[in-house]
TrEMBL record:
Protein name: Beta-lactamase-related domain-containing protein
Keywords: Membrane, Transmembrane, Transmembrane helix
Transmembrane residue ranges: 30-48
Domain called Beta-lactamase-related: residue spans: 76-349
């Protein structure tokens, strides 16, 4: 480890963290020990490589990485509002429910917009303390009262979050809400981007508390029913709220495509405005976006969605660990949805391999 540059070391740590995060709910103690040994061997190998000065992104996106197709579950493409490609791989079918990972966060953002449209929530600059009065009574740092819904959406709450180690403890905590709110405030709210899955779970709690419905019931009533999304598998966290973090939602790929098409149409589905045009435009505007190390190069994040450019094409996309994507190329009226097997040691490689290689080929083939 001592021979690895600091930047490279951080990337390796992040890779291992995402792999643990993807398997945290099913891994056995024996497997965990074996994986730790393997990881230690990998570190030893990497530290002695003569090519250690190469950028991590160059290594990850090289042609030596296992082909995307080996882990691909589905590829769906919509052009001008019509499905032009629908393929399923590796034993999956159109009826298979796929773990969407952090695409859950993008869904939470849509649901928050609907809650604002329906006047359940006044506005995104409302302090979250209004929705967590009992929890805030026990907090000593009064600056946390400045955290708003906007900050949760933008991953800029300022609350400390240390990746997979934090997430494992959070999953096992008796009170996931207080676990997040009790974290130290490392930055002023809104000041800095810091990926925090526990914070986006609070969005699900807010929806339930302000509407008197579960997040799933709210989604069914105001979104899923109109989109004819009839089959989802959504887990609850401790305290009984549906997961908003990205570790508990399975959907059909075709239903992910419907979400992309809804956003492409500025929130309209079959002539009905399901989420306001103003909210959709807020999700994808150039304003209020934070630089992020994840996704396409030079990506920015805001309101739980990502934004970048690829070969001159503006790209708006949602992303989940291991290669779960809803990708919109508005200038070409093109939407690409993929689901992949996240339960592998190659999740980050799969993700970046697709973005840096296969995506451009799909845009070229179907975008003309």
């Amino acid at each position: 480890m001592c021979c690895i540059t600091r930047k490279y070391s951080q990337q390796v740590t992040l890779f291992w963290g995402y792999y643990k995060l993807a398997t945290i709910q099913t891994i056995t103690p024996m497997k965990r020990t074996i994986l730790f040994i393997i990881f230690a061997m990998i570190l030893t190998f990497l530290s002695c490589k003569e090519s250690r000065k190469r950028k991590t992104t160059e290594i990850i996106s090289s042609e030596n990485v296992v082909p995307v197709e080996e882990f691909l579950f589905s590829t769906l493409i919509s052009k001008n509002g019509k499905i032009v490609l629908e393929e399923y791989h590796n034993g999956k079918t159109k009826d298979s429910l796929c773990d969407v990972q952090s695409l859950t966060k993008g869904l939470m953002s849509i649901l928050i917009g609907i809650a604002i449209d329906k006047a359940y929530i006044k506005h995104i600059d409302e302090p979250i303390e209004n929705y967590f009065p009992d929890e805030f009574k026990n907090l000593t740092d009064k600056k946390k009262s400045n955290i708003t819904i906007r900050h949760l959406l933008n991953q800029s709450s300022g609350l400390s979050w240390k990746g997979y180690l934090e997430h494992e403890a959070w999953l096992n905590s008796e009170d996931p809400i207080s676990f997040v709110l009790n974290k130290n405030l490392e930055n002023s709210p809104g000041e800095k981007y810091n990926y925090n899955s526990g914070a986006t779970h609070l969005l699900s709690v807010i929806i339930s508390r302000v509407t008197g419905m579960t997040t799933l019931d709210f989604a069914n009533k105001f979104l899923f029913n109109d989109l004819h999304i009839t089959s989802v598998d959504w887990q609850k966290r401790n305290k009984g709220y549906y997961d908003g973090s990205g570790l508990g939602l399975k959907m059909k790929p075709i239903d992910l495509m419907k979400l992309g098409q809804l956003l492409e149409k500025n929130g309209i589905w079959n002539g009905k405005q399901l989420v306001s045009k103003e909210w959709v435009q807020k999700l994808f505007s150039e304003n209020e976006k934070y630089a992020t190390e994840w996704g396409l190069r030079n990506s920015k994040h805001g309101f739980c969605w990502y934004h970048s450019e690829l070969k001159g094409n503006k790209i708006d996309y949602g992303m989940g660990y291991g290669g779960q994507f809803i990708i919109m190329i508005p200038d070409k009226e093109l939407i690409i949805v993929t689901t992949q097997n996240h339960d592998t040691p190659n999740g980050i490689e799969q993700q970046i391999k697709f973005l840096n290689g296969k995506l451009a080929k799909l845009i070229k083939k179907y975008g003309s």
